[in-house]
Amino acid sequence: MNNKLTSNLIRFILLVLIQVLILNRINLGGYMNPYLYVLYILLLPFETPKWLLLVSSFAIGLCIDSFSNSYGIHAAASTFMAFSRPAILRMITSKKEYEPGIRPGIKDLGFSWFLTYSILMIIAHHFILFFLEAFRFSEFFITLWRIILNSTLTLSIILLSQYLIYNIKQKD
After folding, report:
1. Going from the N-terminus, what domains does the chain have, and what CATH number goes with each?
2. SS (H, E, C) 28-86
3. Cα–Cα 20 to 30 A to 146, which of 27, 56, 129, 132?
4. For residues 125 and 93, is the Cβ–Cβ distance under 8 A?
5. Is residue 112 within 8 Å of residue 68, measured between CB atoms?
6. CA–CA dist 168, 172 (Å, integer)
7. Strand, coil or helix: what is 107?
8. pLDDT digits over 76-93, tens only?
């Protein structure tokens, strides 16, 4: 229990630092900015209580907001992502497949499952994030284009990080 708490806390801090110090400075073409911090919500264990999932997701979003001066849009999007997670998990697989100790990742559940899970979760996050940022439907297609581009970039970086971490753990 303590080991899971420590590893999740370290992941929280590390992802906030990477997002704030490195990734927030990347802006490709004025439209694309990777949001690696959503990996924290993606990798939380299945056994995480719903209230803790919502609170920790709100906390990571609030940390990103406080360093980015974005007035709560990351907190709202992260909380929505956490709120959507149980429904998305029910949609892609049955609860029987989640044995205790299995973590949502490529290592335990495979590439295909993680890809589907990540796409749905990232799109849910980015949909709320970018429509709250635009806050009008007059730019619907531009906002939709930003959602697609940013989701693709974020998904690519998350998949790359999964393989880098998986290979490092495999060597030990």
Report:
1. 2-171 (1.10.1760)
2. ECCCECCCCCHHHHHCCCCCCCHHHHHHHHHHHHHHHHHHHCCCCHHHHHHHHHHHHHH
3. 56
4. no
5. no
6. 7
7. helix
8. 999 999 999 999 998 987
Report how many helices (DSSP H) and strands (DSSP E) the chain contains, helices first. Answer: 7, 0
What is the model's pTM? Answer: 0.90
Would the pLDDT of 171 be above 60?
no
Could you tell me the two tokens for 15?
């992802």
Say if residue 172's pLDDT is above 70.
no
Residue 132 CA: distances (Å) to CA of 47, 71, 73, 102, 165 = 30, 10, 6, 34, 33
Q: What letters, b where the CB count within 10 A reaches 16 and e where it falls short, cover 123-159?
A: bbbbbbbbbbeeeeeeeeeebeebbebbbebbbebbe
Q: Tokens at residue 38, please? A: 């959503």
Q: What is the rounded CA–CA span in Å between residue 45 and residue 167?
A: 20
- Within a 10 A sphere around the Cβ of 76, how many other Cβ atoms? 19
